Amino acid sequence: MSTTYRATVDGSRKFDLDPEQVRKLDLVPTGPMEFHLLDGGKPGLVRILEARPLEKYYRIGVDSRVFEVRLADDLDLQIDQMGFELQTAQQISTIEAPMPGLILSIAVSEGDQVRQGDTLLVLEAMKMENAILAPADGVVGRIPVRKGDAVEKKSVLIEFEK
């Protein structure tokens, strides 16, 4: 089964790409996250400026222009046709300790804007350092723990603004 992708560029322009079209692209890697593109005889430089594959989001520079691209695969398109939406952004109000441990460091402050995957704090448990990451984009509200605090499992470590 071949996968068709729908690329939405800058939130409005939509393009459907099938695997054959992707294979026919004349892209030559010229460096990390950089490619030479030959499109209908016209050369161009393509740079991947930001890539968030789990969200299917890419910020791409083509020559001197920058585009935001969101990809949707067959499953995304089918869900969209059925009138449903995939929830990519989670609504998280608190981060709780996954295990008892000691707070080694806190990487954020109240009011900080965080992105999914950012390190919030480091919790030492069973002589291992565990980075606690932001599960979604958000704004840090209250931080009821401090560096050096011992915490129990399920203790609230960070609260997010709503």
Descriptive account of the structure:
With 162 residues, the chain is mainly beta. It folds into two domains: 5-81, no CATH class; 94-159, RNA polymerase II/Efflux pump adaptor protein, barrel-sandwich hybrid domain (OB fold (Dihydrolipoamide Acetyltransferase, E2P)), CATH 2.40.50. 9% of the residues lie in helices and 49% in strands. The chain is built from two helices and 15 strands. The chain has helices at 19-24, 74-81, and strands at residues 5-9, 13-17, 26-31, 34-39, 42-52, 57-62, 65-72, 94-96, 101-106, 113-114, 119-125, 128-133, 138-139, 150-151, 156-159. Strands 2-1-7-6-5-4-3 form a seven-stranded antiparallel sheet. A hairpin with a 2-residue loop joins β11 (119-125) and β12 (128-133).
In short:
The protein has helices spanning 19-24, 74-81, and strands at 5-9, 13-17, 26-31, 34-39, 42-52, 57-62, 65-72, 94-96, 101-106, 113-114, 119-125, 128-133, 138-139, 150-151, 156-159. It is mainly beta and 162 residues long.
The description of the largest β-sheet is: 7 strands, antiparallel
Unreliable segments of 5+ consecutive residues: none
What portion of the residues fall into strands of 2 or more residues?
over 45%
Count of domains = 2
Helix content: under 10%
Specify the structural class: mainly beta
Quick one: overall form? Answer: elongated
End-to-end separation:
42 Å
How many individual β-strands? Answer: 15
Radius of gyration, in Å, reads: 21 Å
What is the average per-residue confidence, as pLDDT, rounded to a whole number? 85
Looking across the biggest beta sheet, what order are the strands in?
2-1-7-6-5-4-3
Please count the helical segments.
2
H-E string:
EEHEEEEEHEEEEEEEE
